[in-house]
Structures are given as C-alpha cells and as structure tokens.
Amino acid sequence: VDANAAIFVGNVSSKTMSQTRNAKSALDAGWGLLKAMLSYKCNHAGVVFEEVNEAFTPQRCSCCGNIPASSPKGMGALGMREWVCDQCGSVHDRDVNAARNILALGHGRLAGGMPVL
C-alpha cells in the first residue's frame, strides 16, 4: 500500500460467487477479507482505494478499447487464457488484460471527478 498512490480492485462479490458452481474456489480465495484489509490499510496510509465495475474487463482489449469477437466470453471461455484482438492484433493474457482495464477504469473515475465511495 505504501508504494502506491491509488489501488483499484474489481467489484467481485464473494456472496454472489458463492452461489455459483465455483463456490468453493470463491470462498477459499477470501476476496471479501482481502478487500476489507486493503481498504483499511489504504485509509490508514492516505492512499486512494476504490472498487470499480469489472464487467467486461477480460473481454475489452486494453490497447484499442474494443470488445472483439475473438475475446473470451462467458463461463465457457474461462479456460481461454490468451487471446488475440482481431481489431488491433494485440496479444492478451486474460487476467493481465482485465487488470489493465480495471486500472484504466479507476484512473478514469479519478480524472472524471467522480466521488470515491
């Protein structure tokens, strides 16, 4: 926390995830506790902490911003770890691409003057 000015995370809900077939994995991950600890530490250190809507972040190309037909979609595509954007040709790792999009959403909210919840 001390090495950052802002930390953004996706709005994954452990409660919602626990009602899917991935319930054991969602509960084992401890996302709710991690977010609570990060929020506490950020507040104490004076660092911006914000949850952003992570909808479509794995699908949206972090380079061109489009959601191409080649991107992973739905629960069936969870095994698709890498994909190539058919719009700009960028090669993406699913998780890294989503993280870049979450970071961009967080920066966009700060730049737009939206209140931090």
Care to describe what's here?
The chain is of the alpha+beta class and 117 residues long. It folds into two domains: 1-52, no CATH class; 55-103, no CATH class. Helix content is 38%, strand content 14%. The chain contains four helices and four strands. It has helices at residues 14-17, 23-29, 31-45, 94-111, and strands at 6-10, 48-52, 82-84, 91-93. The strands form two sheets. It has a two-stranded parallel sheet with strand order 1-2. The longest helix has 18 residues, at 94-111. It is flat and about 45 Å long.
Query: Helices and strands: which structural class?
Result: alpha+beta
Give the N-to-C terminal Cα separation. 18 Å
Measured by DSSP, the beta-strand proportion falls in 5-15%
Tell me, briefly, the overall form. Answer: flat
Uncertain ranges = none
Rounded average pLDDT: 83
Number of DSSP strand runs: 4
Sketch the topology as an H/E string, one letter per element: EHHHEEEH
Helix/strand layout:
Elements: E1 6-10, H1 14-17, H2 23-29, H3 31-45, E2 48-52, E3 82-84, E4 91-93, H4 94-111
Parallel strand pairs: 1-2
Antiparallel strand pairs: 3-4
